[in-house]
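FAQ: What does the model actually see?

It sees only this:
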Amino acid sequence: MTVQVPVIDIGALRASDPAALRALAREIGIAARETGFFSVVNHGVPAGLIEAVFAQSAAFFAQPPDVKAAVGIESSPEFRGYARIGYEQFDEAHPPDAKESFDIGPDRNLWPAGLPGFRTTLERYYAALLELTVAIHRPIALDLGVDEHFFAPAFDGAIAIARLLYYPPHPGTFDGTLHGSAPHTDYGNVTFLAQDDAGGLELRARDGSWIGIAPTPGAFVCNIGDCLMRWSNDVYVSNLHRVVNRSGRARYSVAFFGDPAAGALVECLPSCTSAAQPPKYPAVTYAEYLQRRLAAAYPLKAGLG
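And it is asked to produce this:
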């Protein structure tokens, strides 16, 4: 079954209307509590930039294996660069993922040779999505009962990641084991996903079934990550999701993982705790938290920059 998650117009982020911002906060808050997934439109990221990123992604993944391997993630201590099919494994209950990816962060990136405009396009996209990530935290903060600018300092020096993704068609009939991306939750605060029309993104419903998320042209799918769930004392839901490419053709998507700065202190918001609901998690820096998560998903351990 395929469903349309709530589609939220976030144009109020660029306006000066407190009432509109509070209304947006309510919309986001409802979705964040129910499934942790929604789509955003009127987000302000130019359509031409999104199209350019997808074109660069297709060009990169079409390169010969040795060209992609030259910027392999194995040579980066900050998890930057290219990851081959089978490199990422979320847990031992599922085989490694059937996908290729390419990651960039705020600095110390690996850049492939021979692709004109690749670096410039990805850097522009990264800047635009980081700005959107900081902005979306304003209504989130209001919904969670703190000042609208509460989260802004946490993203000063953010270690957010932009990831190009390529999923080959799934071989044969899906038997519940080999995924393009196995069931997982995201590590950070929020994720913005731009996807093509191949479909394949699925979230887990409350009854345990898997529901496909229908692509919405021009929209980003946004989901709550584990770190924001932790900050909100589990008021928000970080939901399991997966990718199974049943389309019979290549699937491309671009994820932006809205992670805060390494030194940001992640602790229960005062508005999300009470005598009856004490904090569920100890305070931790984002670097400490993320390092534990990365060590479980990748076959190497690395420092954070």
